[in-house]
Amino acid sequence: MPLLEPNPQALRPGTERSPAPDRVPELKARGTPRRLREELTGLLGPGKVLSKISDLVRYASDASPYRFVPQVVVVAEDIDDISTVLSYAHGKGREVVFRAAGTSLNGQAQGEDILVDVRRHWVGVEVLDGGARARIRPGTTVVRANAALAPYGRVLGPDPASAIACTIGGVVANNASGMTAGTTRNSYRTVSSLTFVLPSGTVVDTGAPDADEELARAEPRLCAELLALKGEIEADTALTARIRAKYAIKNTNGYRLDAFLDADTPAGILRGLMVGSEGTFGFISEVVFDTLPLDRELTTALLFFPSLPAAAAAVPLFNEAGASAVELMDGNTLRASVSVPGVPADWAGLPRDTAALLVEFRAPDAAARETYERRAEEVLAGLDLVAPVASVDNAFTRDPGRISGYWKARKAFVTAVGGSRPSGTTLITEDFAVPPARLAEACATLLDLQSRHGFDAAVAGHAAHGNLHFLLAFDAADPADVGRYAAFMDEFCRVTVERFDGSLKAEHATGRNIAPFLELEWGPKATELMWRTKAALDPDGVLAPRIVLDRDPHAHLRGLKTIPAVEPVADPCIECGFCEPTCPSHDLTTTPRQRIVLRREMMRQGDGSPVEARLLEAYGYDAVDTCAGDSTCKLACPVGIDTGALMKEFRHERHSPREERIAALTAGNFRAVETAARLAVAAADLIGDRVLERVTGLARRAVRPDLVPEWLPEIPGAAPRRLPRTHRPAAVAVYYPACVNRIFGNPEGTRGPSLPEAVVTVSARAGRPVWIPDDVTGTCCATIWHSKGYARGNEVMANRIVEAAWGWTAGGKLPLVVDASSCTLGIAHEVVPYLTDANRELHAELTVLDSLVWAADELLPRLDVRRRVGSAVVHPTCSMRHLGDEDRLTELAGACAEEVVVPLDADCCAFAGDRGMLHPELTASATAREAAEVTARPFDAHLSANRMCEIGMDRATGRRYGSVLLALEYATRP
Q1: For residues 139 and 117, what is the distance between their CA atoms, to the nearest angstrom?
Q2: 640, 675, 670: which is closest to 794 by C-alpha?
Q3: Residue 211 burial (10 A CB sphere; 0-12, 13-18, 19+)
Q4: Are 631 and 41 in contact (CB under 8 A)?
Q5: Helix (H) or strand (E) holding 333
Q6: What is the C-alpha to C-alpha distance for residues 923 and 648, in angstroms, rounded to an integer?
Q7: Distance CA 555, CA 67 (A)
Q8: Which of 120, 121, 364, 623 has an alpha carbon within 20 to 30 A of 699's alpha carbon?
Q9: By CB neighbour count within 10 A (0-12 exposed, 13-18 middle, 19+ buried), where does 556 fall?
């Protein structure tokens, strides 16, 4: 064991707590049963079988109110793995559930036996027929698929609010629709063909010319049963009419019985049945979508009404005018949305009964948009709108920023409202549809129902399609509160069906919470046909039992999860999973959601339980050490939960007092540390990479991997000993070369000036000279200490840099230009909580500019571009995302290259200062997909604006990345 290995008990929850009723029992502390683990490992290999209790717990939760702990998790890589697992399950009488993004709101992504991860290795988009179709793998997010289609002017039909996280497999398996899909653009209507694996192991490609011949050869019994069911349904005219009527409005409750009416052959019937089957009929390995035109001309308004029924009454008017989307939000939703960045703060003061409609018209060209605007104004003239707060204008706009803000508020419905729920309560998301003409009546009925059962729910929905969502919060640990929820559900389901003939699930699919009410909606005959269809496809009941069909009338009350309070920064989390795709460690260890899920399980356990001990043992590496700390999770989370900040706090808690003193001493003597570091890098050129790799490897094993960086061959040589000479009197800005650019030089083999020399030269060339203070050595943005959780060292350096910057900039009169985006973020924002009151006042007077902003806004308009390379690929860093200046990187690259490419999979490289040297496997995992894009073709330049990120991308791609400011200096050189 390394000498300075941290004590896992340092992260043990300190509060006294009683064991929760739904805690993982002590018998499961050792994880997967030995025989199950060994048998699956023997069949699949050890890397594909996750068996630690921490693995099982982190996969036990999804975005729903349910929690079921699997016996084992299999990370499938290909169809052979899927077939192997299914064959094993048949032979052993076991059950299998497939899980992709885990954004399911009804527990579809949870299982109690074998859970198969089909996200990690199932990503990819192939654009077909000039964008008219797209072949997409099931682990691909909707946003990623649409990004690939956007250059062709095409888009997928389904547009769920969770598009940044939900994957195509789940979208199709649940027949998810979204804001505009309705009944005509959903998966059922836009899927061209599917490839899937049946429970028997048979692989079916419904798009193959001989699909039915192959299916009949492999599954003759199944084909006969499907055709028999089709004949039976078609012979019953009343049932046929009922099925058609049920799908006249949005409906995802139960199986798509209209598949028997819409197709003539077994393969065609299966194509329809698989959509919305929730993983109970097979595994969807590939989807071919018919895409739709991407209408780019928008006009949008957020219109405020005195009440929910009043807003609902206006919906038909906008439908008739041709609106693409009409979204409803009640007062609770609007008020909760103030937690979303960009939402006006005065919404918090909206009256209780206020409601709003988000109305959007989408057109292929400006002329069509103007026609829609005239129609919209005619509708507005007849409405009684209200403006209860100053930010409300009740007007249509073309401004992309405002439109984006409106949609952010709407799409944050579940997460923003859920994040504001009382601590310790469980969130239920319900989803139903009524005929659109009866929407206002349904709203009034829902409000009355909530009031009588003591719920103050939030309501929103796709009003254009009669589809409403509402949220309920209750205490799952309190039997009386669970009983209150049960009574509400009983009455809600009866009213929806008997009064409105509505759908109990419009787009979220049946799941666990509506399965007991399936027969109430569909009646005994149709429900029995669904059971028979399941028996035909999965006679042994291997796949996802109890997800769609369940005869237990109380099944929706089983497995409800408690939500114990955790650290305040993470407590609002509703486990939605929006954070996961952006997390650098999501394919390596854990995600932000999983880090919180694991913490909550610790809180469910009694003090010192075996389960708690095992979770703590794994948490250090899986959660804390391999968190990049980039906080992009905060950007993805609609309520801004910063799990990266929590992990930094945990790093601090693991530090001994001695470690904190050493870190503070390092900050206090950073001038000497910086000089020594530059000399060490210079000496490395003489010693050689191989020797340094061996030496640091031995030191890491002896001391601790999270303390001793691994030497990487991509680390460049030392920076010049002296910074370029500058003059203060003529300077229009103060230039602060980050310490990383004072230690490390340019990429190996790069000719020309150093980065500080280039910045000084190009600024002077533009007539905007900068000044480098003589005493920058020994100062830093404090990110070194902040990222590692060294509180005292962080305080020392944060206050030093602000005091120095105040003097350099003459009290804030000149801007401070910083040449590394992470350092800009550190000085501009991250130092603030660690400043003294006096220095916080000084900081408020500073103008801190990223060098990208300086170059794009101040220099480029004043420069003549004299030469350009053919192509450049850029790496936008996570700090640029936080700063909001990614566009400046592409703008500057565009001045230096004829073609600029931003990889579709570009994301945080996870190098994170030196974390990529402490845990190289983290950067390797985080950059794998971006690196595959970059290395798929040659580029003349590889550009970014942060030295350590450039080193990380060097290592990931084998290409030489450099600062875009070096490229700008070259492009404008006389």
Answers
A1: 9
A2: 670
A3: buried
A4: no
A5: helix 331-336
A6: 18
A7: 13
A8: 623
A9: buried
Q: Where are the alpha helices (DSSP H) in 609-654?
A: 610-619, 632-636, 643-654
Which three-class secondary structure string do you get for 396-441?
CECCHHHHHHHHHHHHCHHHHHHHCCCCCCEEEEEEEECCHHHHHH
The total of other beta-carbon atoms located within 10 Å of residue 683's CB is: 11
For 468, the token pair is 């409403």
Better-scored residue on pLDDT, 639 or 393: 393
Q: Give the model confidence (pLDDT) of 716-735 as tens digits.
A: 888 898 999 999 999 999 99
pTM for the full model? 0.94
Using CA atoms, how far residue 892 sits from 206, 938, 951, 973, in Å, is 47, 20, 20, 15
The residue whose two tokens read 């709101």 is 105
DSSP single-letter state for residue 349: G
End-to-end, the C-alpha distance of the chain in Å comes to 59
Q: Where are the beta strands (DSSP E) in 743-859?
A: 770-771, 816-818, 848-850
Query: Which residues, in sequence order, are CB contacts of 872 under 8 Å at separation 6+?
Result: 893, 896, 897, 899, 900, 901, 939, 940, 941, 942, 943, 967
Model confidence at 417, in pLDDT bands (50, 70, 90)?
confident
Q: Is the confidence at residue 287, as pLDDT, over 50?
A: yes
Q: In what order do the strands lie in the sheet with 297-305?
A: 297-305, 355-363, 325-330, 458-462, 467-474, 426-433
Give the pairing type, strands 467-474 and 426-433. antiparallel
* Residue pLDDT, tens place only, 423-434: 889 988 889 999
Task: Calculate the CA 843 to chain-centre distance.
Answer: 33
Continuous segment of H or E residues that includes residue 29? none
Q: How far is CA 216 from CA 34, 193, 204, 225, 582, in A?
A: 40, 18, 11, 11, 43
pLDDT score for 876: 97
Phi (first) and psi of residue 355, to 5 degrees: -140, 165
